[in-house]
């Protein structure tokens, strides 16, 4: 639309110091999330919009809200459009956390250009968000590391660099399944589709393992070795990718931040934060002030202070970059959402950065989702619930077998129904 664009341009021209040359609607100022137009402190609340497989980002077309009320899960939407934004804003939300998966964004290899089809979709969501005053946090999403480990995240080509001799090999030390398949001796089944970008949704062992109990994939030796590679030799390759994302979104006013990794499944805290620092540095080449989100293991917020961090890392966190934020999740660890929020806020204060509860789950009632959202609000902490829609198809075996136990379904396919895909809700709101 022309008018809002024009008024934004005028605002930029006549804006007082606040914007300081930044195109962003929301910036971090003095360690707080700030409305860059008014200079006032704000709280960002919203929903996750994450598509875990091709085409990776929902389309903006469509004339209806993405309806997720179908409890039998016989439908799924592929869009995030103006009706979804109006719907979310009507529920009192002002942001989304938009998943961008490395495998989808940079499919061609290390240091290559980003996928132009993905960038078109990303642009479209960010432009629409701008038009309707919705803010967007870019979430470099992964679960269970990547397709080679039956999850999504790092590209297959990255796994081939990290664990070249283990592509299509049994994941270790997973025991064989109840039906006797997919143990460490079932090399034949594990080898199906080895090296395929869609190994995670095509390989039968992956399909049997990346449903309900997918969490065990993150502690396999293949997952852990890949993360260690990412934190050492592969660090520059990752930083290059993150920098290119910053370059792609820097001129979009709605894009207020880049969260470097969803739920990093790794425990080497010092190496991990060194990697965050390299990635943030790559971002700064293209954007002086977009927020950059750091996180701890699996986005847990524990009272661990500077544990295992080198002095220069702590210096970077506290004084080296004033546009960092701390991203955390709550799904039951530590015991209460209040504890998680307290821990995150304390760490944020220590490091001089704002925090955001970028995921929490569980709808309805007072006991879980709403209790979490309320606790965050009470502490002045923004949050984004998991999640707006499942964004994947097919959800279940067409022949009625348990998920993952049918022949590879053909026909329509989008996203990836893996690693915690269920429970989308386009109308989550608490009293
Ligand atoms: C910032 O303030 C302007 C003016 O009040 C308002 O229109 C806009 O929605 C605010 N942005 C955010 C992200 O709160
Ligand atoms: C795998 O096969 C070897 C011999 O081929 C056998 O000794 C071993 O017990 C098998 N392991 C499992 C876990 O089935
Ligand atoms: C969505 O969340 C609301 C609570 O705000 C709940 O009443 C509703 O049942 C949820 N819908 C689904 C499909 O889970």
From TrEMBL:
InterPro entries: GH, Glyco_hydro_5, Glycosphingolipid_Hydrolases. It comes from the Eukaryota. Pfam families: Cellulase. Residues 84-390 form the Glycoside hydrolase family domain. Residues 1-20 form the signal peptide. GO terms for biological process: polysaccharide catabolic process. GO terms for molecular function: hydrolase activity, hydrolyzing O-glycosyl compounds. Keywords: Glycosidase, Hydrolase, Signal. Belongs to the glycosyl hydrolase 5 (cellulase A) family. This is Glycoside hydrolase family 5 domain-containing protein. It comes from Triparma strigata.
């Amino acid at each position: 639309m022309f008018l809002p664009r024009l008024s934004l341009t005028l605002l930029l021209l006549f804006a007082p110091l606040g914007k300081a040359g930044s195109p962003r609607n929301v910036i971090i100022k003095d360690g707080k999330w700030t409305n860059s137009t008014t200079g006032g402190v704000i709280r960002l609340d919203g929903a996750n919009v994450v598509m875990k497989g091709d085409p990776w980002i929902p389309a903006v077309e469509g004339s209806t809200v993405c309806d997720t009320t179908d409890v039998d899960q016989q439908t799924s939407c592929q869009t995030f459009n103006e009706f979804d934004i109006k719907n979310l804003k009507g529920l009192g939300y002002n942001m989304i956390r938009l998943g961008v998966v490395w495998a989808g964004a940079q499919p061609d290899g290390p240091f290559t250009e980003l996928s132009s089809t993905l960038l078109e979709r990303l642009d479209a969501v960010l432009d629409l968000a701008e038009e309707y005053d919705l803010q967007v946090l870019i979430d470099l999403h992964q679960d269970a590391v990547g397709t080679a480990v039956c999850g999504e995240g790092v590209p297959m080509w990255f796994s081939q660099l990290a664990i070249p001799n283990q592509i299509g090999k049994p994941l270790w030390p997973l025991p064989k399944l109840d039906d006797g398949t997919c143990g460490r001796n079932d090399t034949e089944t594990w080898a199906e589709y080895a090296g395929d970008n869609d190994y995670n949704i095509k390989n039968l062992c992956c399909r049997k393992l990346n449903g309900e109990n997918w969490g065990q994939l993150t502690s396999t030796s293949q997952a852990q070795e890949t993360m260690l590679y990412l934190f050492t030799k592969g660090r520059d390759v990752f930083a290059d990718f993150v920098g290119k994302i910053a370059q792609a979104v820097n001129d979009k006013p709605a894009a207020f931040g880049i969260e470097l990794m969803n739920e990093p499944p790794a425990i080497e805290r010092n190496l991990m934060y060194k990697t965050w620092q390299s990635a943030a540095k790559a971002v700064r080449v293209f954007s002086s002030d977009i927020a950059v989100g750091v996180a701890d293991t699996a986005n847990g917020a524990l009272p661990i202070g500077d544990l295992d961090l080198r002095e220069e890392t702590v210096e970077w966190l506290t004084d080296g970059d004033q546009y960092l934020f701390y991203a955390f999740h709550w799904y039951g660890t530590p015991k209460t959402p209040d504890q998680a929020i307290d821990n995150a806020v304390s760490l944020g204060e220590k490091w001089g950065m704002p925090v955001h509860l970028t995921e929490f789950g569980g709808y309805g009632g007072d006991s879980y989702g709403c209790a979490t959202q309320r606790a965050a609000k009470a502490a002045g902490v923004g949050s984004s619930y998991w999640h707006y829609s499942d964004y994947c198809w097919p959800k279940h075996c067409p022949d009625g077998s348990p998920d993952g136990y049918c022949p590879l379904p053909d026909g329509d396919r989008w996203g990836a129904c893996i690693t915690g895909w269920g429970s989308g809700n386009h109308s989550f709101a608490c009293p």
